[in-house]
């Protein structure tokens, strides 16, 4: 029976992280999605069938022989708007990559013609094994989105990459992939597949003494929206995050930094093989000339001591000057007045392909869930983005980037 709701098949692999997927299922159903849970047989050793059935409102079975009159091994994949597999174990990735069809989930993967997302979770050694890396590359080459696992505490005392990302962030991936699928069909919905993109986010802090710093109000929301939308479009994403107090975007590798110098080092390293670099972070133009090793005290008359400043490196201009062939560079300009005039001057000075110009101020731009901007192109183009969710601005930026990327050989 057709419900009119977006139809999601939630595949569950046999990993300890299966318990986290209950939260992902709850978020999907409560936001109006019709979810059919398809676990592997061993996944039910971790979370039982009654739990999945109660949370989804549908019967649950891993067996192709249950309800065989309805041909579920074909129908589920054919009618789904999204297939989302979490946790995707090393075994499940291998079976999917090699086209095996020995249970209901792998049959569904073979019949699906909608976007397919895998959220791997396993021990670090398994994730980094050449066999797993080859299977991931195969799935990505076929158009599947395989999000990068998070780093952190694993089963037992192990720590490293292989942890299932936060369910709230996995839900954002599902939501963005579905939104993208409604807007674009086929390969255009995953137009960044096989690409590596670097996004800077947040605001740098330049230390004055052990307790004070020069900083700004950037929260990192726009940079993280850029990261989420790039993951949903199939990209491998590196985020260089300066002082961001937000959950890591699922599927992105996050490199935390503090100062402009630290950001410069991290961005230049990540940009070495990147197809596109988007500098959404608010980088301080100046830093104290000297760091005080102890807290600065008031002078006897109560007047503050002057703080000498020196220029910080211009990361965007440096990347623009030393870009590798075919690399697309995007800058951001947060302005308070003469927005377009200042933006055009910055675009020429920074040697960027695109510059996202937005007005900032009290409750405007920084720390808000919405944004409005004008995207200026080095080719003379102008794209106006009306106020809306930061994900919408992010999608517009990636539309413009994708149009400028050279076809892969």
UniProtKB/TrEMBL annotation:
<feature type="binding site">
    <location>
        <position position="332"/>
    </location>
    <ligand>
        <name>CTP</name>
    </ligand>
</feature>
<keyword id="KW-0460">Magnesium</keyword>
<keyword id="KW-0479">Metal-binding</keyword>
<feature type="domain" description="Flavoprotein">
    <location>
        <begin position="7"/>
        <end position="170"/>
    </location>
</feature>
<comment type="similarity">
    <text>In the N-terminal section; belongs to the HFCD (homo-oligomeric flavin containing Cys decarboxylase) superfamily.</text>
</comment>
<dbReference type="GO" id="GO:0004632">
    <property type="term" value="F:phosphopantothenate--cysteine ligase activity"/>
</dbReference>
<feature type="binding site">
    <location>
        <position position="285"/>
    </location>
    <ligand>
        <name>CTP</name>
    </ligand>
</feature>
<keyword id="KW-0436">Ligase</keyword>
<keyword id="KW-0210">Decarboxylase</keyword>
<dbReference type="InterPro" id="IPR036551">
    <property type="entry name" value="Flavin_trans-like"/>
</dbReference>
<dbReference type="InterPro" id="IPR003382">
    <property type="entry name" value="Flavoprotein"/>
</dbReference>
<feature type="binding site">
    <location>
        <position position="350"/>
    </location>
    <ligand>
        <name>CTP</name>
    </ligand>
</feature>
<dbReference type="InterPro" id="IPR007085">
    <property type="entry name" value="DNA/pantothenate-metab_flavo_C"/>
</dbReference>
<dbReference type="InterPro" id="IPR005252">
    <property type="entry name" value="CoaBC"/>
</dbReference>
<feature type="binding site">
    <location>
        <position position="295"/>
    </location>
    <ligand>
        <name>CTP</name>
    </ligand>
</feature>
<keyword id="KW-0285">Flavoprotein</keyword>
<dbReference type="GO" id="GO:0004633">
    <property type="term" value="F:phosphopantothenoylcysteine decarboxylase activity"/>
</dbReference>
<feature type="binding site">
    <location>
        <begin position="313"/>
        <end position="316"/>
    </location>
    <ligand>
        <name>CTP</name>
    </ligand>
</feature>
<keyword id="KW-0288">FMN</keyword>
<feature type="region of interest" description="Phosphopantothenoylcysteine decarboxylase">
    <location>
        <begin position="1"/>
        <end position="196"/>
    </location>
</feature>
<feature type="domain" description="DNA/pantothenate metabolism flavoprotein C-terminal">
    <location>
        <begin position="192"/>
        <end position="403"/>
    </location>
</feature>
<dbReference type="InterPro" id="IPR035929">
    <property type="entry name" value="CoaB-like_sf"/>
</dbReference>
<comment type="pathway">
    <text>Cofactor biosynthesis; coenzyme A biosynthesis; CoA from (R)-pantothenate: step 3/5.</text>
</comment>
<dbReference type="Pfam" id="PF02441">
    <property type="entry name" value="Flavoprotein"/>
</dbReference>
<keyword id="KW-0511">Multifunctional enzyme</keyword>
<dbReference type="Pfam" id="PF04127">
    <property type="entry name" value="DFP"/>
</dbReference>
<protein>
    <recommendedName>
        <fullName>Coenzyme A biosynthesis bifunctional protein CoaBC</fullName>
        <ecNumber>4.1.1.36</ecNumber>
        <ecNumber>6.3.2.5</ecNumber>
    </recommendedName>
</protein>
<comment type="function">
    <text>Catalyzes two steps in the biosynthesis of coenzyme A. In the first step cysteine is conjugated to 4'-phosphopantothenate to form 4-phosphopantothenoylcysteine, in the latter compound is decarboxylated to form 4'-phosphopantotheine.</text>
</comment>
<comment type="pathway">
    <text>Cofactor biosynthesis; coenzyme A biosynthesis; CoA from (R)-pantothenate: step 2/5.</text>
</comment>
<feature type="binding site">
    <location>
        <position position="346"/>
    </location>
    <ligand>
        <name>CTP</name>
    </ligand>
</feature>
<feature type="region of interest" description="Phosphopantothenate--cysteine ligase">
    <location>
        <begin position="197"/>
        <end position="409"/>
    </location>
</feature>
<comment type="similarity">
    <text>In the C-terminal section; belongs to the PPC synthetase family.</text>
</comment>
<comment type="function">
    <text>Catalyzes two sequential steps in the biosynthesis of coenzyme A. In the first step cysteine is conjugated to 4'-phosphopantothenate to form 4-phosphopantothenoylcysteine. In the second step the latter compound is decarboxylated to form 4'-phosphopantotheine.</text>
</comment>
<keyword id="KW-0456">Lyase</keyword>
